[in-house]
Amino acid sequence: MIETRLLTAISFEQDTLCLIVDGKKLVLPLEKVSEKLKNASESQRNFFKLSPSGYGIHWPLIDEDLGVDSLIKLHEQL
Q1: Residue 28 and residue 66 in contact, taking contact as beta carbons nearer than 8 Å
Q2: Measured between alpha carbons, how far is 30 from 16 in angstroms, rounded to an integer?
Q3: Cβ contacts of 61 within 8 Å, gap of 6 or more
Q4: What is the rounded distance in angstroms from the CA atom of residue 51 to the CA atom of residue 57?
Q5: pTM, entire model
Q6: Which of 24, 29, 44, 73 is such that its CA lies 20 to 30 A from the CA of 65?
Q7: CATH no. for residue 71?
Q8: What is the 3-state secondary structure of 1-30?
Q9: Complete edge-to-edge strand list for the sheet that includes strand 24-29
Q10: What is the mean pLDDT of residues 55-59?
């Protein structure tokens, strides 16, 4: 069975991506997450779409897609 993630918040604080996933806050440095997001403007970063299943995040203005599971794994490695 595929596990569904509950992504309830996405924000940016300085050079970090902050997520609330399954009730837990993840703070990830943009340099580890995505070069595109790191170099994007505030308006480009803040225009995103969540997949209905909670598996991914898409930033159409910079053509970037990130999987929530990958971001969780990255957070565990930091």
Answers
A1: no
A2: 5
A3: 40, 43, 44, 47
A4: 6
A5: 0.86
A6: 24
A7: 3.30.2020.40
A8: CCCCCCEEEEEEECCEEEEEECCEEEEEEH
A9: 7-13, 16-21, 24-29
A10: 90
